[in-house]
């Protein structure tokens, strides 16, 4: 974004941060959206083109003393009984 602004100093760029659902609801107000999990929001037919910029992974973080810390892969069934902290509602994660 910085490089773009230096190249085109006469263009006014404004950014806003919100979760993916909110961003999609406000899509008529913007020229560009950067959202997570577009598959859950963007349904055909739609007047928008989607391009995946990067593939991301979700990491599970636990204290070293936690029983799951010794595992290299955690089955989803093992997470079912854990207390989890998630991102805000509407986040792509």
Overall description:
The chain is mostly helical. Helix content is 17%, strand content 0%. It contains 3 helices and no strands. The longest helix is centred in the first third of the chain and has 6 residues.
What does the main sheet amount to? none
Q: Overall 3D geometry?
A: elongated
Instruction: Give start-end ranges of low-pLDDT stretches.
Output: none
Q: Gap between N and C termini, in Å?
A: 24 Å
Strand portion, in percent? under 5%
Overall mean pLDDT: 81
Strand/helix succession? HHH
Q: What does the radius of gyration come to?
A: 19 Å
How many H/I helices? 3
Count of individual beta strands: 0
Protein structure class: mainly alpha
**Percentage of helical residues?**
10-25%
Task: Give structural attributes.
93 residues, mainly alpha, 17% helix
Summarize the structure.
This protein has helices at 2-7, 20-25, 76-79.
Give the arrangement of secondary structure elements.
Layout: H1 2-7, H2 20-25, H3 76-79
């Amino acid at each position: 974004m910085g490089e773009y602004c230096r190249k085109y100093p006469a263009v006014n760029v404004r950014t806003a941060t919100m979760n993916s659902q909110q961003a999609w609801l406000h899509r008529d107000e913007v020229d560009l959206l950067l959202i997570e999990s577009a598959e859950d929001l963007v349904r055909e037919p739609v007047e928008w083109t989607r391009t995946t910029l990067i593939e991301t992974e979700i990491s599970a973080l636990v204290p070293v003393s936690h029983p799951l810390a010794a595992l290299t892969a955690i089955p989803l069934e093992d997470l079912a009984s854990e207390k989890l902290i998630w991102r805000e509602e509407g986040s792509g994660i």
